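I'd like us to work through together how a protein chain folds, taking it slowly. To get us started, please write out a protein record for me. Label the sequence line and the structure token line clearly, so we can match residues to local backbone shapes. Once you have written the record down, we can walk along the chain together.
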Amino acid sequence: MPENAPLPMFGLSSYAFRWAIGCNGFCPSQPMSAVGLIDFAALHGLDVVQLCDNVPLLSCSPTQLAAIRDHARARGIRLEMGIRGTQPDQVERALSVVECIGANLLRIVIDVGDRNESGTQARIERAAAVLNGALSRAGNKSICLAIENPPGGAAIEVVQLIGLIKEGTCGACVDTMNPVLGSESPEQAVLTLAPHALTVHLKDFMPFKETDFFRIEGTALGQGILNLPELVRVLQERGQVLSWHVELYAARAENEKVTLERERYLVEQSIEYLNRLKGRIRGKPSATSDR
């Protein structure tokens, strides 16, 4: 990392707690709020929380957004935001929310559609036009866009989109598990995206052989098949990552209590692993094994 580069931040994506917040029709009796996520991050000594599209910031009032911003500042937590999609009104509203909560990074998941090359290229160009237009009108020119490699999408499509963004700063949000849900290896996706990486979702997983298919199940960091220290090395050497986030793709259990307890345990295990990676990420040798 260059000498004048900002120190990287370590935190949580709100999708680390997909079940505690609510996902895919699963509605916990007491959903975790943005404030609850911020408190959890502060309790565990983290720096930043990325509030993604599973937290309904776009529908919050200015008063509610200010309360979230002030709570994060009081707890010493920086905020980032994430949305899914590139509808013009949605992107402009998101840029306004980013400014309201005092964030400087907006992660975006683009739906690139089917694998038809011309259809995908057209979607990429339309997304670029929307993002360029919204950024040119944004009052805060310091906001960074981070385009995530989506499940089933190819990393090169993210690179193509980044190349079409002429306004402001645009890079990649690198998800280490999403490639395996398509036809790309995590290692290849990281190599492709690393020079553009601004933020990273660290996720690990294990494949399980069923009768006629493989089932993918998320694990705590360091307990799956990914060589995370090597992926981190590539990202460190080739990019300038501003934030590293724990994310999780935990399976739902037989009831709410077990689901939420297991999810929290896996998140806490992942934070412990991330803490062991901090020295490596900051360019210092780790005192203990990363595996």
